[in-house]
Amino acid sequence: MAGHGTPSTPLAPAENGPRSIGIAAASWHAQIMDSLMDGARRAARDAGIDDIVEIRVPGSFEVPIAAQSLARATDVVVGLGVVIRGETPHFEHIASAATSGLAQVALEESTPVGNGVLTVNTQEQAIARAGGEGASEDAGYAAAEAAIRTYRAI
Ligand code: DLZ
User: Fold this and answer.
1) What is the set of domains in the chain, with CATH numbers?
2) 121, 58, 61: which is closest to 87 by C-alpha?
3) Quick check: is 4 catalytic?
4) Is 82 annotated as a binding residue?
């Protein structure tokens, strides 16, 4: 399954593609995170990237600092996390810190950074977007694919 809303041409190795990818991943909602990480690794493999560096941090709030560290060592980066509104008292703060932090890292480090931090209302919505069995979207794949395609484009 390709990522939701991604270009129709399947991801494949390319001469001008990145050689390495960093995956910055939160630890909350472990099972859903496993699906997101599987998707990001699958996108890397489809693009012919063997060099995959992973950093695991406690929560989505910490994903941008891990992404920054990876951006200094790898060609592209993807940030992964799951923030569920109903279960997270400071949902808006964590979600916006993760999203704007990843955008900031991309611009400051001149490195494509895919945003695979899911910000959803319920656990069911997160599962549906995380790319596992029966999911309608493959957000980890899509975020990694976006970073890879951006690297090729710029
Ligand atoms: C504290 C917290 C809460 C309540 N919920 C989530 C969540 O749903 N997803 C997530 O990735 N992280 C959560 N966190 C942890 C914060 O991201 C962060 O790790 C802590 O606030 C410590 O800085």
Assistant:
1) 20-153 (3.40.50.960)
2) 121
3) no
4) yes
User: For 107-136, what is each residue's pLDDT tens digit?
Assistant: 999 999 999 999 999 999 999 999 988 899
Q: Is the CB of 61 under 6 A from ligand 1?
A: yes
Of 4, 29, 90, 93, the catalytic one is 90
**Does ipTM surpass 0.90 in this model?**
yes
Q: And the tokens for 133?
A: 């069995």
Q: Where does residue 28 rank: exposed (0-12), middle (13-18), buried (19+ CB within 10 A)?
A: middle
pTM, two decimal places? 0.94
Distance 57 CA to ligand 1 centre (A): 10
96 CA to centre of ligand 1 in angstroms: 12
For a ligand 1 pocket test, name from 31, 37, 60, 65 the mutation site with the most ligand atoms within 8 angstroms of its C-beta: 60
Give CA–CA dist 74/51, Å, rounded.
9
**Ligand 1 closest atom vs CA 89:** 4
Question: 62: which 2 tokens?
Answer: 């910490």
Give the tens place of pLDDT for each residue, 57-81: 999 999 999 999 999 999 999 999 9
List the end-to-end C-alpha distance of the chain, in Å, as a whole number: 26
